[in-house]
Structures are given as structure tokens and as C-alpha cells.
Amino acid sequence: MKRLEKAKMMHRSNAPIWEYFEDRFHTHPNKYALLDQHSEERSKTIFNESLQSVSGGRKRAIYIHVPYCKDYCTYCYFLKKIPKGQELELFVIAVKNHIYNISKSIWAREKEFDAIYFGGGTPTTLSRNHLKDIIETIKRNLPIASDCEISTECRIGQVSLKYLEGLTQIGFNRISIGIQSFDDRVRMAIGRHLSRDELVAKLTATKKLKFKSVCADLLYPLPNQTLEIWKNDISNFLELGLHGCSVYRLNVKEGTDLWQQLSNKAITLQKSKELEYNFFTEIDRALGNDEWKRLTVVNYGRKGAKEAVYLRYQNDIRYDTLGLGPGATGQINNCLYSNTRNIDEYNNSMLFNTVPCVKVWKSNDDFIKAWRWQRLSINTYISISSDLLKASPSMERVINDLVQINLIKTNGDELVLTEQGRFWSRTISDIIQHTIVEDCIGMA
Ligand code: SF4
To answer: From the CB of 250, is ligand 1 less than 6 Å away?
Structure first.
């Protein structure tokens, strides 16, 4: 484990924490790395078999990927397109057919769904009637908990207050708003055109509507975003008194407009691990106080506010998620699956009632068990179950090394990431995953 040896050397020489590892991962390491991927034909068969067996009462949520946006943000690499003609109507019919087809399965009828989450893309590209139609179809065909959390992601600058109020009337009780930054120059540089003042006014009015939870996304480091601007972003966010916040590190992916602009030197982006550490500690300390609670590596919630049900289920292998829409992933009875990312193919497949699932990952129990520890312990990780030590033979040594270099500390029966550990959480997750894979291969 060369990475850990280097980090131990850095620690011994009192190097700054941002120098401990080469790579700070943007996203969680590949969550499917420990599972076998099957062919498309076999995937469809396994998926159908999973739907026809009971889950033993596993809790469950629904995720709907709405792959449409009215315009694009320069950094975006998500599955999305600008809708043309009657495409939105076709999409809504496809999702409704998908719900209807799934509803006939044994799995679907076994237990109530606790959360419905519309992600994207921009789900609020759909009209209220479209969203209402989908929600009513779900309620008519699937068992839904009476206190079901119904959430949507939203571009607040593209919808009216009347539209937002209408969302509460059709059942939405949680909304997640992509703010990214409050600064006008930063927002312009990433393709967001609402000014800071308009944004604050709209958020203030949205907070007064009947959503139980209004949350925001923030992003760093963005073009034109200095550390001073980031501190202002955090203050602006705190002053609004919203219920929660997801904070992401910018990932510049090849092929995006931002990547192109940086390659052409049309814009510049301040980038260093030290600067990232400073951005990270600003938000982690601001939302780590008495009023706030760290929920996961990227999610913070106001104390007393309920943790988002969907986010909790999605991150945990003990729960199931029904993924609807193109590119949506889901998990049914330990079968992880992904729908086709081709939007036309998805819309057409549902017209002809074929299965849009094209990839399934499923493997033998030992791998699932090892993978389960990794997922449970790190992705939702603020505290790590000491059971992780049993995940594979080398794990105890790895965890001891992480404790020794002050990335993890013990707290009773739990292992807890330190502030430095939170900064390197995804690298730690990758190290743990590699340890499990190497041990499993060694044991095979
Ligand atoms: S709104 Fe979201 S999905 Fe659409 S372009 Fe912007 S970041 Fe991408």
C-alpha cells in the first residue's frame, strides 16, 4: 500500500495535510468495483428475476432521472439535453409506463416506498402537470408511505414562485436548489444568470412556502471564486436559514464547456491542494458548529432538521432504490442496475414495454459482504463502524495506519474521521476499497 506509506512519511516529516496523498478524488470511488458486471441480455434477465422475489422487508425509495435542462452550466457532465417538440410529453408517458410495468412485480408490492426523488438534469423543466401526472401514477400503482418524502432538484431562476407554490400543492415537501455560488461574476462564468440579489429574494420567498425542507447545493473552487468570495458564499447561505446543504468540489471533466474554456485559456481557475484545503475547512468548520450537523461527506443539515430519507437510502446497501428514467441507477434485492443512458432509446423502450435496464452488477456473497462494509462505512461515513476492521484480513493494519497519521480517531466503539480525514475521505475510501479487493483476490 504505497499511498499509505507515503502519507506516513509525510506525517513523520510534519508535511502539511494537503501533501499526504497525490490524488484527492472528486467523487466516490467506483461503487461497483467489487461486483461482476453482466452482459446486457443477462442483465435484463437478472433484473426481472430480482423483481420477482421478495426483499425481506427492505426499506425503499424511488429515484426519477429527468434528463432535461433549459440551458447548460459550463461545468456540467450529467446526462441531459434541451427538449425539443413533444419530447417532454413522450418522456412523461415513458416514465408512467415504466412505473406501471414495475408495479406488477412481487418486489414492488411488498412494502411501502418512503421517498420519491426527482433528480436530473433539471426536473423543474417539466410542467407542474407533468410532475403531478407522474406522482399520481406512482400513488395509484405503488404502495406509498403516508408521510412519504417527495423531493425535487430545482433551478430556481427558471421557475416562478407560483410554480414553486404549485409544487407544494401536488405533494412536494422537500426541494434542493442548485445555488453553487452567490457571487454574480462566479455565477456568470458558469452559465448561471440570476443575480445574487434576485437569488436571495427568490430563496427567501421559497423558504416561506410549505416545503418542510429547503436545501441548497454549493460548489468550489469555481472560475473567479477566491477564498474571500467563498467565505461570502458561506455567510450568504447561513443568513438565509435554509435547512440543509450539499457541498461539492468542482470536477472539470474533459469535453465540458468549462474544460474547453480552460484548454483554450479563455478563463483561468485557481487550483492547488492547499487552496482546496482552505475552501474545504471554511465550510466544514462553518457547518460543524452547534447549529449544524455533518450528515455525510458532502451533506450538512441544520440540527433538528430531518435527514433526507432519499439521500440516506441511496447511500446504503441495506435499502433498495427503484431507479426510473434514462441513466438512472437503482438497487433491488442486492442487484445493482443501470438504465440505458440513451434518452430516445429509454422513451421508445417504454412505449414498447421492453426493459430499459442495460447493466446489472451482482456477485457472490463474499464480495457483496466486503463491498457492503466498504459502502456502509465510508460513503455515509462521518463515523465508521468498527466492524469495518473485519471486512478483510489487512483492514486492521490499514485502519491503524490511518489512526496513526491522524486521519481517523477512535471514539468508543466507533472510528471517526478527523477534519483532515474528512478532507481526504474519498481517497481513504479508495484505499479501503483497494485493500478489500486485494484481500479478496488473494483469498480466491
Ligand atoms: S442544471 Fe444541472 S444538469 Fe442542467 S446543465 Fe446545469 S448542472 Fe447540468
So the answer is: no
**In 3D, which of 229, 247, 242 has the Cα closest to residue 285?**
247
Judge if 51 and 124 occupy the same domain: yes
Q: Is the pLDDT of residue 30 over 60?
A: no
pLDDT digits (tens, 9 = 90+) for 192-229: 999 999 999 999 999 999 999 999 999 999 999 999 99
- CA nearest ligand 1 atom 2, residue: 121
Domain that holds residue 368: 1-36+364-444
**Whether residue 44 sits in one domain with residue 32:** no
176 and 82 inside one domain = yes
One domain for residues 247 and 268: yes
Ligand 1, atom 6: nearest CA belongs to which residue? 73
Q: How many folded domains does the chain comprise?
A: 2
Of residues 17 and 366, the one with the higher pLDDT is 17
Q: For the segment 374-396, what is each residue's pLDDT rounded down to a tens digit? A: 554 444 455 666 666 666 778 88
- Taking CA atoms only, the protein residue closest to ligand 1 atom 5 is 72
Decide: 76 in ligand 1 pocket, CB within 6 A.
Answer: yes
Atom of ligand 1 nearest to the CA of 77: 8
CB-ligand 1 contact for 122 (6 Å cutoff): yes
Distance between CA atoms of residues 120 and 170, nearest Å: 19
Q: Which of 220, 248, 252 is nearest to 233 (CA)?
A: 220
In contact, 29 and 433? CB cutoff 8 Å = yes
Interatomic CA distance for residues 153 and 215, integer angstroms? 9
Q: 111 and 253, same structural domain? A: yes
304 with 398, same domain? Answer: no
Q: 45 and 14 in one domain?
A: no
Cβ of residue 121 lying under 6 Å from some atom of ligand 1 = yes
What is the Cα Rg of the chain in Å?
22
Tell me which of 265 and 29 has the higher pLDDT: 265
Residue by residue, DSSP assigns 328-358 as -EEEETTEEEEE-S-HHHHHHHHHTT---EE
Ligand 1 touching residue 74 (CB < 6 A)? no
Rounded to an integer, the average pLDDT of 431-439 is 77
Instruction: Work out the percent of the chain whose per-residue pLDDT is above 70.
Output: 88
Residues 276-311: tens digit of each pLDDT:
999 999 999 999 877 888 877 788 899 877 678 888
